[in-house]
Design brief:
The protein is α/β, with parallel strands linked by helices. Helices cover 41% and strands 19% of the residues. It has a six-stranded mixed β-sheet with strand order 7-4-1-2-3-10, sandwiched between helices. It has a two-stranded antiparallel ribbon with strand order 5-6. Strands 8-9 form a two-stranded antiparallel sheet.
Length: 251
């Protein structure tokens, strides 16, 4: 069983992009991700005896008066280092990254969250189909876990329609159930999904590459082509890696 943990960035405000992103993790790997993040907590907050909920927006907050405990105990440099440590967890383990970056001006006739969810559901299903084709005796199924949001009801309806049904790209065969929704504080994997979404949002909305480049090797790919990242844009000559990958010849 693989679980795809999803979070979003850019749905509110005046940003040019919306991003939905997350990690697909084999069930036995979940424990080790949690152990890695727990180790980060012990390193920075050894005196805290309850699970700290990590959110990248808190760590990037410029107004020190708005930083909640225990993060307000850290210097700016410590917060930057902590962010990098979280991205190194994502890079170093065997999870598979999926994301869709949607230019809002491109998506004027659809709700970007719903379009992004349909896109990633299809990509996750194709990933599992490839896994199963390589090892049919050990068939894998998938479940999607989503960070709580105001779009819960809409995504539940979409998930019910997709389960055992079709998306615009074809029939889904490996998704076991409708998506389930959790507060990010309940699982380290949703906290890591928050970091994924933020890095990808920063890359497409503001051209920030550092964090994106750390996790980019984890995008689902096959034969030199990136399947795990979609860029929906009006720019037909885009040179970002997702678009370049689709233009490149198969190896």
């Amino acid at each position: 069983m693989y679980i795809l943990y999803l979070d979003e960035s850019g749905i509110d405000g005046e940003s040019s992009y919306f991003v939905l992103a997350g990690l697909a993790v084999f069930e036995r790997e979940i424990y080790w991700y949690a152990q890695d993040v727990d180790a980060i907590q012990r390193r920075y907050f050894p005196e805290v005896n309850y699970p700290v909920e990590f959110h990248v927006s808190v760590l990037r907050q410029k107004d020190s008066s708005k930083i909640p405990e225990p993060f307000d105990r850290l210097t700016v440099e410590q917060r930057r280092t902590l962010i990098n440590d979280m991205y190194q967890v994502i890079r170093s383990r065997r999870g598979v990254l999926f994301a869709v970056a949607i230019e809002k001006a491109w998506c004027i006739t659809e709700e970007p969250y719903e379009r992004g969810f349909e896109d990633l559901t299809s990509r996750f299903d194709l990933f599992l189909k490839r896994i199963n084709a390589m090892s049919p005796e050990n068939e894998q199924r998938g479940i999607i876990a989503v960070a709580e949001s105001s779009y819960r009801r809409n995504l539940e309806i979409l998930g019910e329609r997709f389960r055992g049904g079709t998306t615009r790209w074809g029939q889904l065969r490996t998704i076991s159930d409708v998506p389930f929704f959790l507060p990010a504080r309940n699982t380290r994997l949703l906290q890591l999904a928050d970091f994924c979404a933020n890095a990808i949002f920063g890359r497409y909305n503001a051209g920030l590459t550092r964090d994106f480049d750390i996790i980019a090797p984890r995008f689902d790919r096959e034969l030199g082509r990136i399947h795990g990242l979609a860029h929906l844009t009006r720019d037909h000559e885009c040179q970002y890696i997702a678009c370049l990958s689709r233009q490149a010849p198969m190896l």
